[in-house]
Give the backbone structure.
Amino acid sequence: MSGKKLSGEVFYPSEEVIERAHIKDWEKLNAEASDDNEKFWEDRAEELHWFQKWDKVIDDSIKPFYKWFTNAKTNIAYNCLDVHVETYRRNKLALIWEGEKGDFQAMSYYALHRETCKFANVLRSLGVEKGDRVTIYMGRIPEIMIAMLACARVGAIHSVVYGGFSVEALHERIEDSESKVLIVQDGAYQRGKIVPLKEIADEALKRAGGIEHVVVVKRTGQDVNMEFGRDMWYHELMNLPIATKECTLEKMDAEDPLFILYTSGTTGKPKAILHTHGGYMVGTYTTLKYVFDIHDDDRFWCAADPGWITGHSYIVYGPLLTGATSFMYEGAPNYPYPNRWWSMIERYGINILYTAPTAIRGLMRFGDAWVKRHDLSSLRILGSVGEPINPEAWKWYNRVVGNEKCPIMDTWWQTETGMFMIAPMPSVPLKPGSGTKPFPGIDMDIVDEEGNSVKSGEEGFLVIKTPWPAMLRTIYKDPDRYVEQYWSKYPGMYMTGDSAKKDEDGYFWIIGRVDDVLKVSGYRLGTAEIESALVSHDAVAEAAAIGLPHDVKGNAIHAYVILRAGVQQSSELKEELKKHVGHEMGPIAKPENIDFVDSLPKTRSGKIMRRVLKAKALGQDPGNISTLDE
Ligand code: WT7
C-alpha cells in the first residue's frame, strides 16, 4: 500500500515500526498470496508441526463444504504446548494472569503443558473420548485455558459458553451440543461481586439432560451445591493418581472438529459454528503473527473473553501457537478504579493491547489523567475489534494510550471466519475507522442485491469470494442451515451479514449488520433470543427487540412488549421483565428500555418489521412499508 498518495486522513507508520515488522512490504506479500493462494497457505502451514502432511491444501470438490489440508494429521494443542516445551521456550511464560482482587498467576509453557496433560487424563477418566462434546462455562481464569487445551488434546470438542450468559442460554447450548461433561466455576468475580456460575449451571441442568459429570473449579469459595456422583471438584480430581503429567495425545485429522461456538444468527436459535484442528490452526497462527507482528519476546493482551471467538483465537490458540506470552485479566476494566488496565500494562510490560471500541469509549469517559499516571511505553501495537471504531475513540486510543507511536490494527472478522479477514499490518498506512484491506490472499468484495460489485464509495453487502483456512466448516448438526445462511444468496460467495463501502484506495469501511443481529458493547446478540426470553415471562404475549445507537455500547437494546390480556402495565413490571431477561439470557441481553404497546408492525406474513420500529424510535422515515399489514 505504498507509492500512491492516499485520500482522506492517513496515519503512516514510523520507520521504527516498519524496521521491526515481519512484513515490511504488504503489497508484495499480497501479490504472492493472490497469485498462488494454495502455496501461500501451504508455506505458512509448514511452520507448524504435522504428524503427517496433507495430500491437498484445499479440497473444493463439494462446495461450500471446503476442506483444508486433507488427510494431514496434527493436533492444535500439540502445536500450542508440546512443540515449545521441546525448545528454549520450555521455561518461558505462556500465560500471565491477574485476578480481579489483585491475585496473580504465571505459567510457563512447561507448567501449562503439565496442567493440560493432567486435566486431559482427568477428562479421559470421566469417559470423555474423541468427538465427545464438553461444555465449558467459566470466567476468565487460567483453568479455562487448561480446560480448552485438554479437550483439544484428547480430541473432544469444546463448547465454551460465555460466563455472562445465564440459565436458558446455557441450557440451550448444553442440550443442543449433547455435551457429556460440564466444566464450571463455583463463582466468578465481576466488579467486586460474585456471579454464581455453579448455581446458574444447576438451574440449567434441571432443564437439560445429558450431562454425566460436572467438574467444578474453586475460585470464589462460597458454599455450592455438589450433587453426589455427578459433581466433582477440579482440585480433587487433579490430585488423583490418574492425573499424571504424561498423557497420550490424540492425533487428529486436520478436518476433525476442534470446537463449536454458539453465535447469533438472523432467526431462531443460536447456531453452533464448527471449527477444525488444521485450518483454524494455520489461520489463527498466521494472522496473529503478521497483523500483531508477534515476536518471541512479546507479551500480548487480548482483553476479550475466552467465551467468544476473539478469546478462542487470540487469547488461547493464536498466542500459544506463536509462542508468545498471553496475558489474561479476570475482572472489570474500571475495578476498583479506572486505571486498572493501564496499571497492569505498566506492571507486566504488555507490548500489544487488543480490545473493542466499546471498552475504549468506556475508559475514555474517565479522562486522560487515569491513563497518564502510568508509563505505557512498553506498548508497541494496539488493536480494535467487534464493531466499527468511531474516529474520536480511534484518536484518543492513538494519542493517549498509544502516545502516537503505536499503530492501531482494526481487525474485521467473525465467529464464522475464525481469523482476521480485513486487517492492516503495522507497516500499512492507516485511516481511522477502516480495517484497511483484506488479509493477503483473501478476496472480499462489496456487492449489490444481484451480487454485482458496487462502485467505490457505494454501500453494499460484504462478501468473501475465496475459501480461507480458518473458515467455519458447517453449523454443527445443521449443514442445510450452513448452506442456506451463508452461501445461498449469491452462489459461490460467503455472505457476511454486514454492509460496507470501499473507498478509492481500496480501503474497506464497515457500516454494520444488515440482519437481525445486534452488536451491544461488542457482544453479538440476536433479536430473536431477546424476544424469546421476554415471551417466556408469563405477563408477555409478544415482544420485539431492536438496537438503538448508544454512546458507549454502540447499540443499546430497546424492547416493545405486548402484555397478555388482563395484565396491568407498570414500571415495576418493566423492571421485572428486564431482570427476567437477565436471568434467562444474561445481563448483557437486558433491554435498556421497554415500551408497552398494543400492536407491533408486521408484514402480512406475520414477520415483525423491526426496521419500522427503529425508524420510528429515531424519528426517521421508515422507507418502503408496502409489505406492512394494517
Ligand atoms: C460481527 C461479528 C470476531 C470478532 C469479534 C466479533 C462486527 C467485528 C469489526 C470491525 C466493524 C466489526 C461485524 C461482524 N465486527 N469486527 N473491526 N469493524 N465491525 O465476532 O461476535 O462473530 O461478530 O462483528 O458486524 O459481522 P462476532
